[in-house]
Specification:
Blueprint: H1 5-19, E1 22-25, H2 30-43, E2 47-53, H3 59-72, E3 76-80, H4 96-114, E4 119-121, H5 134-142, H6 147-150, H7 155-164, H8 190-205, E5 211-216, E6 219-224, H9 226-232, H10 237-247, E7 252-255
Parallel strand pairs: 1-2, 1-4, 2-3, 6-7
Antiparallel strand pairs: 5-6
């Protein structure tokens, strides 16, 4: 018989107690916020949050992570991470996520050892087994623990339990790193990453919550939830957004008719791991 979410939560707590002293890779998203909250409740000061600040991450995410840790009284270390300095990363290869995760989590492991923490844990869950996720391979190679996956939790389990715990992230939209908005092979620069971030800030300011702005050269491809497409096309809003996108450097602005979906840049890959 399948376990219910509270049985899975009990398994999660037991596993965290086994690990003892942990560094939680904390992005401020749904999964890592839930994991950090449960780890801190279970382990107290033996659970420390590690957050990476880089050009791949919107500064608003780092600010939200800081605010959560301050509110919860969790020790929080923000590490400046030179993502574009990783060898090969600027060419945005298909294994970009592998290269990034390998470099970042090696630094997290080194930092955890300095802090006397026994393990680095991340928020991967069962739903992360799908799609093309080379970053998962890097985590396995480095021995990074994934307690939510170990406990058999899905994304919906995490949202449901987050709601019970009254976490502000229980209904937070899913967002991946800014580099995931680029076509593989397109050169990554700080300026281009900031341009995508600015474009997504424009959509946030217009009241859209779950979306992506994918970059194809100087063309912006907007992915929206199907229920948001009609509002986007409303008189005046479409033109205003297109004008603002052009102001920040896009020549063309399009809307994807298939709508928002994770991993759409992976749809053309023929060899997925």
């Amino acid at each position: 018989m399948a376990k219910d979410i509270h049985e899975k939560l009990a398994d999660l707590n037991a596993y965290l107690h086994e690990l003892g002293r942990v560094a939680v890779a904390f992005s401020g998203g749904v999964d890592s916020t839930f994991l950090l909250k449960v780890a801190h409740d279970a382990l107290g000061d033996n659970a420390v949050a590690f957050t990476a600040s880089s050009v791949f991450v919107p500064e608003r995410d780092v600010d939200e992570a800081r605010a959560f840790c301050e509110q919860e009284g969790i020790r929080h270390i923000v590490k400046q991470f030179d993502t574009l300095g990783i060898e090969g990363i600027r060419s945005n290869p298909e294994n970009r996520c592998y290269l990034c995760k390998q470099a970042l989590f090696q630094q997290f492991k080194d930092l955890a050892a300095q802090q006397g923490l026994a393990a680095v844990v991340d928020g991967s869950n069962l739903d992360d087994d799908g799609d093309y996720r080379p970053g998962r391979r890097a985590l396995k190679e480095l021995g990074i623990k994934s307690p939510l996956h170990q406990a058999g939790m899905t994304k919906q389990d995490i949202r449901d339990l987050s709601r019970e715990l009254q976490l502000p992230t229980w209904s937070k939209p899913s967002f991946a790193c800014l580099a995931s908005r680029f076509v593989y092979g397109e050169e990554l620069t700080a300026e281009k990453l900031q341009q995508v971030n600015q474009a997504e800030e424009i959509l946030l300011a217009k009241g859209f919550a779950q979306f992506r702005v994918r970059r194809h050269g100087n063309l912006a491809r907007i992915e929206l939830l199907p229920q948001d497409m009609e509002r986007f096309m409303a008189l005046g809003l479409r033109e205003d957004i297109a004008a603002k996108f052009r102001e920040i450097g896009f020549d063309y602005v399009t809307m994807d008719l298939l709508g928002y979906r994770t991993g759409s840049m992976n749809e053309t890959l023929t060899d997925k791991e």
